[in-house]
Amino acid sequence: MVSRLYWSSLGYFRPSIIRVLSFGNSLSGGHCKSWLFQSFNVLVVIGSFLFFLVAMCSGYLFMFPAFQPVVHSSGTNMSTDLGNMSTDLGHGCNVFDGRWVPDESYPLYNASECPFAELGFNCLANRRKDKGYLKWRWKPKSCEIPRFDVLAVLDMLRGRRVVFVGDSLSRTQWESMICLLMTGVEDKKSVYEVNGNKITKQIRYLGVRFSSFNFTVEFYRSVFLVQPGSVPKRSPKRVKSTLKLDKLDDISTDWIDSDILIFNSGHWWTPAKLFDMGCYFQVGGRMKLGMSITGAFRFALNTWASWVESTINTNRTRIFFRTFESTHWSSRTRQNCKVTRRPLSRTKGRERSPFSDIVMNVVKNLSLPVALLHVTPMGAFRSDAHVGPWSDTASVPDCSHWCLPGVPDMWNEILFSYLLSQHRVILQ
Ligand SMILES: *[C@@H]1O[C@H](CO)[C@@H](O)[C@H](O)[C@H]1NC(C)=O
Ligand SMILES: *[C@@H]1O[C@H](CO)[C@@H](O)[C@H](O)[C@H]1NC(C)=O
Ligand SMILES: *[C@@H]1O[C@H](CO)[C@@H](O)[C@H](O)[C@H]1NC(C)=O
Ligand SMILES: *[C@@H]1O[C@H](CO)[C@@H](O)[C@H](O)[C@H]1NC(C)=O
Ligand SMILES: *[C@@H]1O[C@H](CO)[C@@H](O)[C@H](O)[C@H]1NC(C)=O
Ligand SMILES: *[C@@H]1O[C@H](CO)[C@@H](O)[C@H](O)[C@H]1NC(C)=O
Asked: What are the Trichome birefringence-like N-terminal domain coordinates in residue numbering (predicted)?
């Protein structure tokens, strides 16, 4: 019963409640204020201009949504099953609607002292010189994310199995989680990869055990979540491989017996990684050559949804799905990008993604609770936080992956604060 109650509290992560509204931000506000101030100093002697300037600037102010009252024009009502939940995140606070604020107490760890942060994501170790990008914290509009309490989290995870499934962005969150947790472990040698493996891009399984706390944090590489298939006879020549959209990845049986299960998918659903490689879609043994990528993504996610409904015991397993992690490429060909020194003040449409929309629609339709980590809007501001040219392989700059420490730490902070608030409810 208790489980049922606390599960129902997941409501406030449900898409019906997630509204990406106006992205109020202090950056544009700051600009406007200082501009105003300087202008006054200069123009104060020219009295006749003063009036004109005030009028101009109020017009200017009106053009910035940050200065207007935020209207929460929620299209749907909050689900009522939230009623009895009191959590640190606050009633119905959408933690994904907010802004980045400077915070000198960040970062939370040093990647060079964490053996599980891969060199490719450790930008400082790859000669990134500016450090401002490390000093930002996500601030939801109507609540605070409680400060990361490593000992409380380590304690909560005792005896648990945490499983990440997805692509390299999942691996980043996995690495970030391990590095965050290791800051609370005195004997660093008590934390080890169960098979003694090193982190590589292609590896299908990595499991890190925190032996003094009796839990593991694991990563399964499954970039499409569904199974690769063979090429049926009499297929056109261009078909070199297929994806069976109606079959979940064959390693999925290993995901079932877990306590916390976090999925993602999206970055591999591109023409360059599919059609250009000769990879086409298949359903029920038949080729679907005309199917669009977003159509295929939706199909695959529905396969995932049926799998969740038929195999996962939600009395035990808490399921999360992370939405699309924003990229900042300067062109569609993904050859160029410029990493900025500060976060963007406007997201310019990057706060939305068709992949995120599909994830939200599929999750909304599930009869079981799945918590959405809707990271698309928060990532959209962070053109300063990508790996860029500071990776261990200097080829093209990388504006998909994030530096560690960095943005994925915030995904974990949100995940932890959420799990902790649930944990306290159970203990009561
Ligand atoms: C989950 O918990 C509920 C309530 O305690 C119980 O009725 C149900 O059978 C449980 N489901 C499973 C799959 O154990
Ligand atoms: C929200 O709830 C109010 C009152 O309960 C109701 O009048 C309104 O139609 C609801 N709106 C939506 C979009 O469901
Ligand atoms: C909280 O739960 C109690 C008992 O289940 C119920 O009577 C009460 O109305 C609920 N409160 C809210 C705000 O939903
Ligand atoms: C991180 O740790 C390394 C190795 O201990 C050290 O050289 C470096 O100065 C540290 N970096 C920061 C930013 O503290
Ligand atoms: C470790 O956790 C498992 C559950 O994952 C539990 O069965 C076992 O008893 C725990 N071991 C210790 C020493 O607490
Ligand atoms: C929602 O689920 C129902 C039944 O499971 C299905 O018929 C419908 O197509 C689903 N809708 C979407 C948008 O996936």
From this structure: 92-144
Residue 125 DSSP one-character state: G
Q: List, chain by chain if needed, residues with CB within 6 Å of any ligand 6 atom.
A: 302, 361-362, 365
CA distance 175 to 293: 29
Residues paired with 219 in a beta bridge: 164, 206
Give me ligand 5 centre to Cα 237, in Å: 53
Tell me if 76 CB under 6 Å of ligand 2.
Answer: yes
**276-327: per-residue pLDDT in tens?**
999 999 999 999 999 999 999 999 999 999 999 999 999 999 999 999 999 9
Q: Which amino acid, residue 402?
A: W
Q: Is the distance from CB of 272 to CB of 327 less than 8 angstroms?
A: no
Q: Which two tokens stand for residue 267?
A: 């970055």
Q: How far is CA 326 from CA 48, 86, 192, 246, 335, in A?
A: 48, 31, 31, 27, 16
Pocket test for ligand 3, best of 84, 85, 87 (most atoms within 8 A of CB): 84
Beta bridge partners of 263: 165, 321
- Which ligand is nearest to the Cα of residue 365, counting in written order? 6
The type of residue at 181 is L
- My answer on whether omega of the bond before 107 falls inside 30° of 0, hence cis, is yes
For the segment 72-81, what is each residue's pLDDT rounded down to a tens digit?
222 222 222 2
Centroid of ligand 2 to alpha carbon of 19 (angstroms):
16
Q: Which atom of ligand 5 lies nearest, measured to the CA of 161? A: 5
Helix intervals (H) in 197-314:
293-311
The H-or-E segment that residue 137 falls in is strand 136-140
pTM score: 0.78
CA distances from 300 to 70, 207, 246, 331, 359 (A): 37, 26, 6, 27, 10
In 89-197, beta strands by DSSP E: 98-102, 136-140, 161-166, 191-193
- Ligand 3: nearest atom to the Cα of 83: 14
| Ligand 2 geometric centre to CA of 75 (Å) | 9
